[in-house]
């Protein structure tokens, strides 16, 4: 049997609405791991926010990968080795801070196990911290506090506002950073030319495999790059409409074990 790669976004894809992996989904994934297929978790989350699911799926045992920060950091689970990483230029931070302050946005980055917030946490920053199980640490002066390398910044805003703000930031910084939405209220600011697809290219190189061997599943705006890149790109039934338009196949929603359908169809 030809070995394949199953690439999974976490929120809205691997997990149900309660952020849990259903018993049926977990069993289906473990079955293909036992057959020698590889599983990659690809998320906008920081690495600490992915560890729960790495452990639950036993990816250290099976040799999976964690692609965190939308592809800015890749870790091989068995060895713990950092396969690849890119950092956001700190010279961007003053402009991002001023833009966030002017437009009433939340602005965070990450340090160790903490979500570092430039302002009092809005409801979307609290969602980000809750999703990842990481505490919020508000700092008085983020420009002086951040003297370490960072993989990304995240801005937050109401969905009807975020789309316009992303376009404004792309026009201003698009030649030095990758800027896109993940959730309707999350605006990701990444190192230039970093997204889930560019990260997956690195994993394919390391494994000596081709994109045709890859099935990528997702639901959010930041999943479009990998869905278009994969041999088979899958949108969940709960995916954003533009994600469904980009996909080769639309499966059932995350709350209806859509990944079980994908595994039955493409890994049988």
Layout: helices, strands, pairs:
Layout: E1 5-8, H1 10-14, H2 23-34, E2 38-42, H3 51-56, H4 59-62, E3 65-68, E4 73-76, E5 82-85, H5 93-103, E6 106-111, E7 114-117, H6 123-132, E8 136-138, H7 142-145, E9 153-156, H8 159-173, E10 177-181, E11 186-191, H9 196-207, E12 214-218, H10 224-229, E13 232-235, H11 241-246, E14 249-250, H12 258-266
Parallel strand pairs: 1-2, 1-12, 2-3, 7-8, 12-13, 13-14
Antiparallel strand pairs: 3-4, 4-5, 6-7, 6-9, 9-11, 10-11
Q: Based on helices, strands and strand pairing, what is the structural class?
A: alpha/beta
How much of the sequence lies in strands comes to 15-25%
Order of neighbouring strands in the sheet with most strands: 5-4-3-2-1-12-13-14
Under the CATH scheme, which architecture of the largest domain would be assigned? 3-Layer(aba) Sandwich
Which consecutive residue ranges, at least 5 long each, have pLDDT under 50? Answer: none
The best one-word shape is globular
By DSSP, the count of extended strands is 14
Helix amount, in percent? Answer: 25-40%
Largest pleated sheet: 8 strands, mixed
CATH superfamily of the largest domain: HAD superfamily/HAD-like
CATH top level label of the largest domain = Alpha Beta
* C-alpha end-to-end distance: 10 Å
CATH topology description of the largest domain:
Rossmann fold
The whole-number mean of residue pLDDT values reads 97
């Amino acid at each position: 049997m030809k070995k394949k790669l199953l690439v999974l976004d976490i929120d809205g894809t691997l997990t149900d609405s309660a952020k849990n992996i259903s018993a049926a989904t977990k069993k289906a994934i473990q079955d293909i791991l036992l057959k020698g297929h590889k599983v990659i978790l690809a998320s906008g989350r920081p690495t600490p926010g992915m560890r729960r699911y790495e452990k639950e799926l036993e990816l250290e045992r099976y040799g999976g990968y964690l692609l965190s920060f939308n592809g800015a950091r890749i870790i091989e689970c068995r060895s713990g080795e950092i396969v690849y990483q890119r950092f956001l230029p700190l010279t961007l931070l003053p402009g991002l801070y001023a833009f966030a302050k002017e437009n009433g946005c939340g602005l965070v980055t990450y340090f160790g196990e903490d979500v570092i917030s430039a302002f009092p946490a809005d409801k979307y920053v609290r969602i980000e911290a809750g999703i990842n199980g990481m505490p919020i640490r508000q700092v008085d002066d983020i420009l002086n506090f951040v003297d370490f390398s960072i993989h990304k910044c995240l801005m937050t805003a109401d969905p009807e506002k975020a789309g316009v703000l992303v376009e404004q930031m792309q026009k201003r910084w698009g030649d030095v950073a990758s800027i896109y939405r993940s959730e309707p209220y999350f605006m990701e600011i990444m190192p230039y030319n970093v997204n889930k697809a560019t990260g997956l290219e690195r994993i394919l190189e390391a494994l000596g495999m081709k994109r045709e061997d890859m099935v990528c599943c997702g639901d959010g705006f930041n999943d479009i790059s990998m869905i278009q890149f994969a041999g088979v790109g899958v949108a969940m039934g709960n995916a954003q409409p533009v994600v469904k338009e980009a996909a080769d196949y639309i499966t059932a929603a995350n709350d209806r074990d859509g990944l079980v359908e994908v595994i039955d169809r493409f890994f049988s």
